[in-house]
């Protein structure tokens, strides 16, 4: 059994950018090329994929190697994973005790079969930069599954020797000439996604935490999860705009900003301030399009709708222009580097994550309990402040949920608490729409009565106050 750790920086680029990169004058003169054909295997119900594992047989020339990987799915650009490699003679996997597959699947190991294939042309260079030795790989090809095909264009940078900062220096040097974005999908994940219906958007995945983790480990995993959530939806937007993908991209930004606030006690103030500022800007860039996406379906007047749809088209185009910008690409690479190199966390981040999470969740809940008192009598601004705190608490509760897993009673309490929190958020969100819609309509020179779906504000305030009381009375799952 060959067990080896692997760390690499993965970067996505377009087909046109890949052509440019292959001719990039700053590349070393010498390179190696190889044609790689890989067959990926799993059970019909994807039991390996659901466990974050992949099984492939890759052929290069006459040589075939079977590889089992435990993918770092919580990574955003930076992957850390275990591999088991075994030479094989043919295209049938060898599932003996040299890999964990048989033990993992049990009797279902007999159901393992071909799932999809990946064909790439690989070109490899060795780069020496800033005292570091880096293997640079360009892969161009396609993944084929279920009669569908998706192009693969990606660069991988692997540090062979030296300071990992050099990886990011090289990435920025390339990006100055050829647009790059952190990659968050392995080739195996691309194949699995191609076997299913293409989504309009991708929701946040559960963050894999456990009670043994430190504050440091917890923050880095949460931050990586947020970056992955954003990049998956950004990629969908760059391919084809959908309101759902825009919404999830904004959710990902809010989640990451909430994580920076939750972990403020262990972060360097300058880092937190810098990234908060850029993320706030990016959220605002997406905000106008989101406002129009939500408002237009409620507008019943044809001429008003036409005016808003023209503004919507412009807002959509502006979003895509900004997403293509160097400012956004630089922000993403900066975030990946920051988290990959440890985020400059303070020494106290090495303490247990559980008491830290308890303290932060308790503080947020208290702010909501106090700030939402007499909620029906609060003005719009004060209610909006409660709504923002409710979002932070919800994201924090979702982030930290894995730290408090185990017993059924606690799991039920988590579900009930989050349900009450979501109910209050929904009420406050509707109230916020009532407060902000008139200003949006006025901004476009429209009367405030062109939007349908009006509700009685008094009834909504009463319901929101009751939802607040239910949340305050709910059992905390972290105690």
From TrEMBL:
Domain CYTH residues, every copy: 4-198
Keywords associated with the record: Transferase
Protein name, entry field: Ceramide glucosyltransferase
Gene3D superfamilies, per database record: CHAD domain (1.40.20.10), Hypothetical Protein Pfu-838710-001 (2.40.320.10)
PANTHER family, alphabetized: INORGANIC TRIPHOSPHATASE
CHAD domain segment(s): 212-476
SUPFAM superfamilies membership: CYTH-like phosphatases (SSF55154)
GO molecular function: inorganic triphosphate phosphatase activity; metal ion binding; transferase activity
InterPro entries: CHAD_dom (IPR007899), CHAD_dom_sf (IPR038186), CYTH-like_dom_sf (IPR033469), CYTH_domain (IPR023577), YgiF (IPR039013)
């Amino acid at each position: 059994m060959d067990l080896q750790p692997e760390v690499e920086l993965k970067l996505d680029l377009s087909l046109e950018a890949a052509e440019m990169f292959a001719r990039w004058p700053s590349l070393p003169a010498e390179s190696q090329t190889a044609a790689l054909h890989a067959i990926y295997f799993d059970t019909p119900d994807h039991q390996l994929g659901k466990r974050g594992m992949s099984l492939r047989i890759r052929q290069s020339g006459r040589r075939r190697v079977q590889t089992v990987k435990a993918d770092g799915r919580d990574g955003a650009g930076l992957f850390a994973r275990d591999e088991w490699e075994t030479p094989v003679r043919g295209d049938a996997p060898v599932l003996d005790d040299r890999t964990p597959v048989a033990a993992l699947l049990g009797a279902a190991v007999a159901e393992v079969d071909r799932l999809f294939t990946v064909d790439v042309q690989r070109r490899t260079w060795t780069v020496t930069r800033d005292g570091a030795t880096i293997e640079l790989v360009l892969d161009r090809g396609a993944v084929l599954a279920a009669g569908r095909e998706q192009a693969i264009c990606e660069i991988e940078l692997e540090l062979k020797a030296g300071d990992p900062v050099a990886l990011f220096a090289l990435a920025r040097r390339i990006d100055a000439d050829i647009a790059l974005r952190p990659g968050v999908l392995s080739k195996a994940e691309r194949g699995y996604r191609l076997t299913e219906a293409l989504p309009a958007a991708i929701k946040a995945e559960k963050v894999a935490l456990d009670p043994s983790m430190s504050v440091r480990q917890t923050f880095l995993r949460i931050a990586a999860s947020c970056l992955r959530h954003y990049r998956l939806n950004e990629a969908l937007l760059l391919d084809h705009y959908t309101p759902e993908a825009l919404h999830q991209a904004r959710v990902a930004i809010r989640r990451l900003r909430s994580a920076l606030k939750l972990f403020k006690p262990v972060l360097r103030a300058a880092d937190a301030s810098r990234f908060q500022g850029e993320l706030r800007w990016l959220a605002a860039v997406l905000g106008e399009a989101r406002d129009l996406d939500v408002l237009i379906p409620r507008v019943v007047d044809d001429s008003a709708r036409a005016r808003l749809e023209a503004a919507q088209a412009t807002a959509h185009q502006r979003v895509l222009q900004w997403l293509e910008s160097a400012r956004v690409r630089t922000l993403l690479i900066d975030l990946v580097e920051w988290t990959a190199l440890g985020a400059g966390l303070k020494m106290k981040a090495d303490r247990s994550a559980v008491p830290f999470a308890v303290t932060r969740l308790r503080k947020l809940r208290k702010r909501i309990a106090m700030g939402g008192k007499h909620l029906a009598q609060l003005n719009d601004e004060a209610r909006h402040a409660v709504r923002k705190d409710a979002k932070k608490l919800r994201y924090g509760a979702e982030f930290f949920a894995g730290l408090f897993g185990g017993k059924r009673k606690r799991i039920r309490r988590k579900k009930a608490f989050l349900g009450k929190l979501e109910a209050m958020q929904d009420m406050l969100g509707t109230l916020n729409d009532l407060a902000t819609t008139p200003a949006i309509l006025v901004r476009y020179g429209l009367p405030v009565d062109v939007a349908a779906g009006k509700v009685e504000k008094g009834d909504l305030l009463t319901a929101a106050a009751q939802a607040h009381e239910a949340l305050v009375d709910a059992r905390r799952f972290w105690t």
